[in-house]
Amino acid sequence: MAIGAGILRVPKEAKKGEIVKVQMVITHPMEPGTRKDPQTGQLIPAHHLTKLELFFNNKLVSVIDMGGGVSANPFIGITLKVEESGIVKISYEDNKGGKWEKTAEISVV
């Protein structure tokens, strides 16, 4: 998978008022900028996610500030109380200007 590719998982259906799990895995090297290349001895440049935002029906629900201390290919889990059907959107960016977003729909039954 390419850098920034991700898999977003949410339940397709939920009951009104139910708390659901929003789960995401993001393909990213998460280099902190402090490690040396074993072959050259040079520092590997920093390349990591800096921010992740969770929206539900275009309303900002959560912000996570990230940095080089987060492991490669991070798994993110957030709970969300669902009162109505809607779209979950996760947007995220890295320190080199990369920006991505994923969306998924939840239906209240």
UniProtKB/TrEMBL annotation:
Designated name of the protein: Sulfur compound chelating protein SoxZ
Species assigned in the record: Hydrogenobacter hydrogenophilus
SUPFAM superfamilies in the cross-refs: E set domains (SSF81296)
Domain spans labelled Sulphur oxidation protein SoxZ: 9-104
